[in-house]
Design goal:
By secondary structure, the chain is α/β, with parallel strands linked by helices. The protein is built from 14 helices and 11 strands. It has a 6-stranded parallel β-sheet with strand order 3-2-1-4-5-6, sandwiched between helices.
């Protein structure tokens, strides 16, 4: 099931961006075998949605037979994904030259923060560092205050994992023409910079020149911001276009002020913000949600990740699913003819190890030997 049914992926254990990318590939039907390293070190996350739809084997890459085992498994794979710092995969014996030597169709995807080249390539970093250098962090925040980290959504997932998926899909398409695989250098700093393309266009036309928090889409405009309700919750407002703003003003009860007919005039923004702030403070989030429910006014409640699954729209579209008792986002996008299969919970060490590895080209005796030798578990 799924548009990627038949595609086989080997994923080396990693943090955040690469697992997210492999989750998406698995969601879309790819057969993903996750190799967890014995004693990988570092700070890890507990098994969760990023590990769903996987079968897992633990393998010691520092064992004498570890790299050779990976090479055997790769013969049955279309894609190999690793998220090590540059040079680490080579030192472990699973670099692209080694794995592609006898598998010219292999797509070798490398997920890093800084990329495989450049002066920062060997340095450590996290989402906040990558988006900071890419120009994606500085615009986020209120005027006169520090930039606000947008969780790790921009670098790890949008500029990282999704960029990896785009690269893999493009390489799979190209391989149909050439018959050859290739190496993909997916860097979070590159992907985060790519996400700012719209801002560069706005700036070039003189439409994004103010300091942080004073522009149209960064909270500077009163018609594109969040507002506190009487119960301490928030509503999101995004009525940029005049016809949407007119409906917004009418439902909010501020349409009697002639000055609000020029809502795009920055000289009116301060006065307009005061009116909007005062109006939203009169009712609860639930009441405002009801008032704007059937309006083309671009107003919605600000929900926590844990509340989002209960919203009627998300329920109607089954935007969230429950997997092994854990609510989480459903696979996306949706396909009419080849829908994604229902997600399965992460499998931390499949009990039928022999059967799994046999499907990836290892014989029963070979699996028992590797297990007895301590290379796999």
């Amino acid at each position: 099931m799924g548009p990627l049914a038949g595609v086989r992926v080997i994923e080396m254990e990693g943090l955040a961006p690469a697992p997210f990318g492999c989750m998406m590939l698995a969601d879309l039907g790819a057969d993903v075998l996750q190799i967890r390293r014995e004693s990988p070190g570092g700070v890890g996350a507990p098994p969760g949605p990023l590990d769903r739809n996987r079968r897992t084997v633990r393998l010691d890459l520092k064992h004498a037979e570890g790299p050779a085992t990976v090479r055997r498994l790769v013969r049955s794979a279309d894609v190999f994904v690793e998220g090590f710092r540059p040079g680490v995969a080579e030192r472990l014996g699973v670099g692209p030259e080694t794995l592609c030597e006898d598998h010219s169709r292999l797509i070798y995807a490398r997920m890093t923060g800084w990329g495989q080249s450049g002066p920062l390539a060997p340095r450590a970093g996290h989402d906040i560092n990558y988006i900071g250098l890419a120009g994606a962090l500085e615009p986020i925040g209120r005027p006169g205050e520090r930039p606000v980290p947008p969780l790790n959504l921009l670098g790890d997932f949008a500029g990282g994992g999704m960029l990896l998926v785009v690269g893999v899909l493009a390489a799979l398409v190209e391989r149909q023409r050439s018959g050859r695989g290739q190496v993909i250098d997916a860097a979070m700093v590159d992907g985060s910079a790519l996400l700012t393309s719209f801002l560069h266009g706005m700036h070039a036309h003189g439409l994004w020149n103010g300091e942080r928090g004073t522009n149209m889409l960064d909270g500077g405009a009163p018609f594109y911001d969040t507002y506190r309700t009487s119960d301490g919750q928030f509503m999101a407002v995004g009525c940029i276009e005049p016809r949407f703003f007119e409906e917004f003003a009418r439902r909010l009860g501020i349409d009697d002020d002639p000055g609000n007919r020029s809502h795009l005039d920055p000289t009116r923004w301060s006065a307009l913000r005061e009116q909007v702030t005062a109006a939203f403070a009169q009712h609860t989030r639930a009441r405002w949600t009801e008032i704007f429910a059937d309006a083309d006014a671009c107003v919605t409640p600000v929900l926590s990740p844990w509340e989002a699954a209960d919203h009627p729209h998300n329920q109607a579209r089954s935007t969230y699913v429950e997997v092994d008792g854990v609510p989480q986002p459903a696979p996306a996008p949706r396909f009419a003819r080849t829908p994604a299969p229902p997600p399965t919970p992460p499998n931390q060490g499949d009990p039928d190890l022999v059967q799994i590895l046999a499907e990836w080209g290892l014989g029963r005796d070979e699996v028992h030997h590797l297990r007895d030798a301590g290379a796999i578990s």
